């Protein structure tokens, strides 16, 4: 399964796995998500709105817990910056979203 998330926690995995993390650009992430069925587990409404705008996709806000298994993959939209003001639709000055692709073996 392919997941889109704004965070990753070790609580999302069970057992012993190797996690591979690769940095990705917006174009690559957009292509991956457009070409594959994915489940959004972005648990922050404003981040979901900003990522939607970034990627040109309708990214769902979906606060959901997952248990990742071997062969699952995840795209992380990692917000870096000051605390977002509720209802924000744009990144504040100095903030950014970094995209990473995680795979589990």
Outline the structure in words.
Helices cover 20% and strands 28% of the residues. The mean pLDDT is 94. The protein has a five-stranded mixed beta sheet with strand order 2-5-4-1-3, covered by helices on one side. It is globular. The two termini are 13 Å apart. The chain is built from two helices and five strands; from the N terminus they run ββαβαββ. It is an alpha/beta fold and 105 residues long. The protein has helices spanning 26-35, 45-55, and strands spanning 2-5, 19-24, 39-40, 73-80, 96-104. The protein has a domain at 6-10 and 26-66 and 73-80: Rossmann fold.
Indicate the topology.
Elements (H helix, E strand, L loop, with lengths): L1 E4 L13 E6 L1 H10 L3 E2 L4 H11 L17 E8 L15 E9 L1
Parallel strand pairs: 1-3, 1-4
Antiparallel strand pairs: 2-5, 4-5
Number of strands: 5
The whole-number mean of residue pLDDT values reads: 94
| CATH fold node name of one domain | Rossmann fold
Q: Widest sheet: strand order?
A: 2-5-4-1-3
Please identify the top-level CATH class of one domain. Answer: Alpha Beta
Distance between the termini: 13 Å
Spatial shape: globular
Structural class: alpha/beta
Following the backbone from N to C, one meets helices and strands in this order, namely: EEHEHEE
The CATH homologous superfamily of one domain is termed Uncharacterised protein PF08960, DUF1874
Instruction: Figure out the total of helices.
Output: 2
Major beta sheet summary: 5 strands, mixed
| Unreliable runs | none
Helix content: 10-25%
- Multimerization state: single chain
Instruction: Give Rg in angstroms.
Output: 13 Å
Question: What percentage of amino acids are in beta strands?
Answer: 25-35%
């Amino acid at each position: 399964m392919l997941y889109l998330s704004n965070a990753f926690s070790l609580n999302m995995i069970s057992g012993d796995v190797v996690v591979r993390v690769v940095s990705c650009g917006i174009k690559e992430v957009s292509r991956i998500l457009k070409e594959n069925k994915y489940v959004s587990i972005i648990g922050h409404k404003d981040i979901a709105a900003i990522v939607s705008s970034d990627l040109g996709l309708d990214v769902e806000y979906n606060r959901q817990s997952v248990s990742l298994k071997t062969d699952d993959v995840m795209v992380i939209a990692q917000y870096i910056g000051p605390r977002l003001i509720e209802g924000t639709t744009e990144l504040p000055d100095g903030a950014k979203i970094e995209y990473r692709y995680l795979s589990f073996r």
